[in-house]
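User: I'm putting together notes for a lab meeting next week and I want to include a structural view of one of the chains we've been expressing. I don't have a solved structure, so I'd like a prediction I can at least talk through. The sequence is below, exactly as it appears in our construct file.
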Amino acid sequence: MNFVSIRVITGDVARLVAFYEQVTGVRANWSNEDFAELGIGLVTLAIGSTRTVPLFAPGSAAPAENRSVILEFLVDDVDSVYRNLPGCVEEFVNEPTTMPWGNRSLLFRDPDGNLVNLFTPVTAAAVAKFAR
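Assistant: Thanks for the context. Below is the predicted structure for the 132-residue chain, given as structure tokens.
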């Protein structure tokens, strides 16, 4: 089994895609106005419209209601990225902070309120964990 994608359901696909394009520097591949994908490393961030939900099961997903999942992106220098985000990110949850597990993390919310974590490994153990 391979984990290849995470999908975020939104009421405004264009707005959310534009946000993630700016944050990641990756251009989205649009299938249609209701669905776009950003290929980031080995994983795809898919963004789907609320109009796609009934294709799976009506009412099975709702936009802007996530309070348990954090989308995480490994970056080369979280402090540098942080300096470039103020015009893009409206709600920062924290500034870059070194976590007990060795990552320097920046937490903020996307336009739908989903938590996003940009992080850089800074301890030897954390660096080794993400070495490729």
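A couple of points you could mention at the meeting. The mean pLDDT is 96. Residues 73 and 118 are 5 Å apart (CA to CA).

User: Perfect, that's what I needed.
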